[in-house]
Design brief:
Strand content of chain A: over 45%
Helix content of chain A: under 10%
Oligomer: heterodimer
Shape of chain B: globular
Largest interface: A-B, 29 and 29 residues
Radius of gyration of chain B: 14 Å
Distance between the termini of chain B: 33 Å
Structural class of chain B: mainly beta
Radius of gyration of chain A: 14 Å
């Protein structure tokens, strides 16, 4: 069974800092991995999807890396802003021949960026 | 707005009542997923449809839960005889897969928050 761990559980930083969120997963047989953002009481917003054959994916100030063999992914946020405050969730996507794919989520990293 | 929509956004019910939630996926998406999220936790997979076929159900989905996607478009999730432990956010997601190994980014709706009193 896939288990996902995200470190740190919570992070509070001043505006402008560059920061790294870590995700580790136990089953490296993943098809791809998604990073999401979730604001309190809201649904999930997909930030980046990184395929198992890729090592990096970038979108604006966000950069996600993937080391499939070691079961790790990191999300790098450059020049953080107060609007980045949210919970960030990592979800590797396991593919099964019989049924397609499912995402397994960690508990997330709660990020607060202070003005 | 052409994203995933869910209805209702909030539902308060008494223990023992039945509730039904609806999810409308992104129109061309052939896959639809249901997840449940409790406070402070990440979402947990419940079930998944490829077109109208329900292909996988989690052990979390007890006999009181049933999901349908009758015409391969919208889906409903029904909970019978609700219990306080059913209180959670129920999230729907959809994706487009051209084949079994196809691109499969999942897009989520805003969720339905269920409170069972």
């Amino acid at each position: 069974k896939q288990e996902v761990t995200q470190i740190p559980a919570a992070l509070s930083v001043p505006e402008g800092e560059n920061l790294v969120l870590n995700c580790s997963f136990t089953d490296s047989a993943i098809y791809n991995l998604q990073w999401f953002r979730q604001d309190p009481g809201k649904g999930l917003t997909s930030l980046l999807l990184i395929q198992s054959s890729q090592r990096e994916q970038t979108s604006g100030r966000l950069n996600a890396s993937l080391d499939k063999s070691s079961g790790r992914s990191t999300l790098y946020i450059a020049a953080s802003q107060p609007g980045d405050s949210a919970t960030y969730l990592c979800a590797p996507n396991i593919y099964k021949e019989t049924s397609g794919s499912r995402l397994t989520f960690g508990e997330g990293t709660q990020l607060t960026v202070n003005p | 707005d052409t994203g995933v929509s869910q209805d209702p956004r909030h539902k308060i019910t008494k223990r023992g009542q039945n509730v039904t939630f609806r999810c409308d996926p992104i129109s061309e998406h052939n896959r639809l997923y249901w997840y449940r999220q409790t406070l402070g936790q990440g979402p947990e997979f419940l079930t998944y449809f490829q077109n109208e076929a329900q292909l996988e159900k989690s052990r979390l989905l007890s006999d009181r839960f049933s999901a349908e996607r009758p015409k391969g478009s919208f889906s409903t999730l029904e909970i019978q005889r609700t219990e306080q432990g059913d209180s959670a956010m129920y999230l729907c997601a959809s994706s487009l897969a051209l084949d079994l190994l196809g691109w499969n980014e999942q897009f989520f709706g805003p969720g339905t928050r269920l409170t069972v009193l």
